Amino acid sequence: MAPIRFPKPLWRRVIVVVVSLLVVGAGWWFLDKLLHACGGLGSGVVTIDLGGECVGVTDGSYVFDPALASVEEKIAAENASVTGSGHTVTVALLNPMTVNDTSPVSIAEVHNQLEGAYTAQHRANTKQPKALGDPYPLIRLVLANEGSHEDQWKPVVHQLEGMVDAEPLVAVTGMGVSVTQTELGAKDLAAHGIPMVGAITTADELSYAAIRGFVRVAPGNREQVQSLLAYLRRRPQLDSAIVVYDSNSDDPASPDLFTRSLRDDLRSGMSGLIKSAPSLSFTGASGQSEASPDLFNNITTNLCAVKPKVVLYAGRALDLLSFLTSLEGRVCPDTPMTVLTANTNLGSLTNNQETLRDKKITVVNAAAADAPGWANGVPGTPAHFPNFRSEFGGLGLDLAHLDDGDVIATHDALFTAVKAIRLASAQGNLPKAADVLGQLLNLNNLNTVPGASGELSFSFRGTRGDDSGNPCGKPIPVLEIPPSGSFPGEAGPPYVTC
Fold first, then answer.
1. Among positive and negative, which fits the CA dihedral 114, 115, 119, 120?
2. Domains parsed from the chain with CATH numbers
3. Phi and psi at residue 452, to the nearest 5°
4. Sequence-distant (≥ 6) Cβ neighbours of residue 260 within 8 angstroms
């Protein structure tokens, strides 16, 4: 007689099913991680959509773009030299590091930003300059790519926040390009007590008053407009103006904070020149609007009809070249056009000076830096620029890249973070992010930052603190292309903040 077989207890069948599901689930999880990993599992970098941009945090071992390989290799080597020392902290550079045709920055600009950050890291780790104070802690630099339009700021910022205890991450620099995503990411970092130093973020909304722990080495748009006003006061013949602005400034879903702030500051600061002239708008290529970017034809036709002495351009560099091309073909070629703008990288225009002169167009830019002029010792050259330039070249980096002011701004942002870090570690212990945050507004008096762009200081300024976090001691060179003055590009002595 066959033995009687009793059915397995229900709980055993449940366990078998659960284990099977866990195995299958783990397999799918691993496959998903494998498919979305960039540079292999554990690289810290993932692609959000298969075949899309790789975003995340790397120590330089993952290369975001072949054009960045050489400088990322240098950063990775510098990191390897300080890792495991026992007195090293981590600082992140948070920026777009992948680009497409509508990105507000080019891959060449990203490369130059990394060179600026690397130079600052290397100088800090080799005890230069002494004005940075105590030679420790040493600096490990990680690169945080939030995507070409900063659309992936959230997972990348959360990744950085998870590094505060284990790495330890004590500061974030860079902070993108003054778009809505920049503000959202900064507020998220602020909620976790992480200090930030912006490099090229100039929108007025990005301030210490609005975002605790946020300072920047670039002057805000309001101060840049003040430098343009100083330029115009010396040229009374430029007595009328009209504003041309990017309509992405008013995108309800994701306004461009840089162009909106610049437009509003130009309209407010130069109301006496604008009078009742209505502003003209275009659709910038870097925005999220579904509208096709304008070709500027209607704008140039209107400008020829109104004939303002000055065009106040509140847009990004990506669209400025198209605008100037349209002006070159305007129907009033004998009417001179002076285009004023701010914080725009105009390096590419230096090769187009003769065309601009022939077409009676002058571009005037309130710039973050003037490396060619400073190399020639123009009045107002920052005291620390020569040493910075010498060490930049000594690292085998191309001095021509300094024409891009982003190099200097990114260098100075990391230097500012390092100065705060070393003030916070005066007792010999490795500081935490909260300790560094507490020193940001103490970077003044004897503790200024020896920046390549100026002797920078930061302090609490006023009961509301609207300007707290903006740099004092920062010259704002106003550059003319083509130049009309005795110096290569600068149009007179620079305006200096504070």
1. negative
2. 44-218+376-474 (3.40.50.2300), 222-367 (3.40.50.2300)
3. -65, -25
4. 203, 249, 250
Residues 6+ apart with CB under 8 A from 134: 422, 425, 426
Beta strands in 320-398, from DSSP E residues, in sequence order: 337-342, 361-366
pLDDT digits (tens, 9 = 90+) for 28-62: 333 344 344 697 766 679 876 545 899 999 999 99
Count Cα neighbours of 90 within 13 Å in the Cβ-side half-sphere. Answer: 24
The Cα 315–Cα 293 span in angstroms is 12
Q: What is the DSSP letter of 211?
A: S
Alpha carbon distance 268, 270 (integer Å) = 6
Average pLDDT over residues 392-418: 97
pTM here is 0.90
Q: Are 415 and 124 in contact (CB under 8 A)?
A: yes
Backbone angles phi, psi at 139, to 5 degrees: -115, 120
Handedness of CA 252, 199, 413, 454 (dihedral sign): negative
